[in-house]
Amino acid sequence: MGVKGSEIIGVNKDELVQMLNEALCEEWLAYYQYWIGAQIMEGPMRSEIEPELMLHASQEFAHAGLVLNRIIQLGGTPVLSPAEWMKYSKCPYETPADPYIEIILNQNLSGERCAIARYKGIADFANGKDHSTHQIATQILNEELEHEQDIEDWIGDLERMKEDFRKLRL
């Protein structure tokens, strides 16, 4: 980070780098959770939802890149080993042991809600003190909010489909 850039930051850089490293680990886990879930998912609407989960996975990958670059700009060292991801992550990784689509979606929804809290925390921490990090956190937060809405909509669609099926059986 340049001299002027360092001068204008009004936050503890070590604390911010720690928060960003935790977010970085969470992004890698979220990427994998979306990617693997899309690969193994079974059930109704799979063909419609699978490409959307792959899109979410690619967005999580892009988030990791943004966070990584900011860590480096701040003079920090990113978490270098995948073995450390679970240690640093505050968002739990839920193994998709049951491939049923609704379970996969609920696991991803839980992850998105944790990511929303993560990026709200980073945005609040940096607000008015580190404009670059605040902007990155806000950008990612907005995408995580979109992901949450997408998943809630899909779960709602599945519920309506199940209700319609129940009505047909009566």
Indicate the radius of gyration in whole angstroms: 18 Å
Helix and strand content put the structural class at mainly alpha
Specify the overall morphology.
elongated
**Poorly predicted sequence stretches spanning 5 or more consecutive residues:** none
Mean pLDDT: 94
Number of helices: 6
What multimeric state do the chains show? single chain
Order of H and E elements: HHHHHH
How many beta-strand segments?
0
Ends apart, CA distance between termini: 67 Å
The CATH architecture category equals: Up-down Bundle
Largest sheet, if any?
none
- Number of structural units classed as domains: 1
CATH class category:
Mainly Alpha
What is the fourth-level CATH superfamily? Ferritin, core subunit, four-helix bundle
The CATH topology is what? Ferritin
> Helix amount, in percent?
over 70%
Strand content: under 5%
Description:
With 170 residues, this protein is an all-alpha fold. The chain is 77% helix and 0% strand. It has a single domain, classed as Ferritin, core subunit, four-helix bundle (Ferritin, Up-down Bundle), CATH 1.20.1260. The chain is elongated, with a radius of gyration of 18 Å. 31% of the residues are buried. The mean pLDDT is 94.
What key attributes describe this structure?
single chain, 170 residues, mainly alpha, Ferritin, 6 helices, 0% strand
Gist?
With 170 residues, this protein is mostly helical. 77% of the residues lie in helices and 0% in strands. The chain has one domain (20-169): Ferritin.
Secondary-structure map:
Blueprint: H1 3-8, H2 13-40, H3 46-73, H4 85-88, H5 101-126, H6 131-169
